[in-house]
Design goal:
heterodimer, A: alpha+beta, Glutaredoxin, two-stranded parallel sheet, 5 helices, 4 strands, about 40% helix, B: alpha+beta, two-stranded antiparallel ribbon, 1 helix, about 20% strand, elongated
């Protein structure tokens, strides 16, 4: 669940945004209401309490227009101050980076990968990303 | 509850299969990052990752709303 890391991420963005470009890429929903929904029943009440900034009642967008609509809502709700791009309907960038449901990459100015983070939610480690940035910038 | 568990196991299996299919092809440290062209949210403006070469390092943050 991407929203669980939003607070940690924003701190990293605030610290390094003068030296690093942060791009948020919106990909297909991890827990859409019409798929692997986590927003129902007892579990739903627990996760809604634990992670109030995440969305729970969102259906998986069916076309590019709906993707942009949901991505816009996400951007507003999480208040992430960075460029946001929207993956295409074929999930081509998501597939190229094996990014679903959440993942970080840090890429140097020559286009080479410095840090390829693990797959979320358990492999999503903002502190590793921060360390990779700090090491790179010296 | 049973329905939820069944659904979770089903989706977990699908997600694992998806990762097993695409993760071996994803870039690792020291690989060149695959280029792409995507639209900015709420806009038709397209951005390529390669647009930023020679400028700043880039962090890509993949995720969704749920």
């Amino acid at each position: 669940m991407f929203a669980t890391a939003a607070g940690s991420l924003q701190k990293i963005v605030d610290q390094y945004q003068d030296q690093v470009l942060f791009i948020n890429i919106y990909i297909r929903e991890a827990h859409a209401r019409d798929a692997w929904w986590l927003g129902e029943g007892v579990l739903g009440r627990i996760v809604r309490t634990l992670f109030p900034r995440a969305a729970y009642d969102v259906d998986d967008p069916r076309d590019a227009t709906e993707r942009h609509d949901v991505a816009s809502q996400c951007r507003l709700a999480l208040n992430l101050n960075m460029l946001m791009l929207v993956d295409d309907e074929d999930d081509s960038v998501n597939k190229a980076y094996a990014a679903h449901p959440t993942r970080f990459y840090f890429i140097d100015s020559d286009g080479r990968v410095i840090y390829a983070g693990g797959v979320g939610p358990f492999g999503l480690r903002p502190w590793e990303l921060k360390k990779a940035i700090a090491n790179y910038l010296g | 509850m049973l329905t939820f568990l069944q659904r979770t196991l089903s989706y977990r299996g699908r997600e694992k299969a998806w990762q097993q299919k695409f993760n071996p092809l994803a870039p690792k440290a020291d690989d060149m990052a695959p280029d792409f062209a995507l639209a900015e949210v709420g806009s038709e403006r397209m951005w390529r990752l390669s647009d930023f070469r020679g400028q700043k390092p880039v962090v890509l943050i993949f995720g969704s709303f749920t």
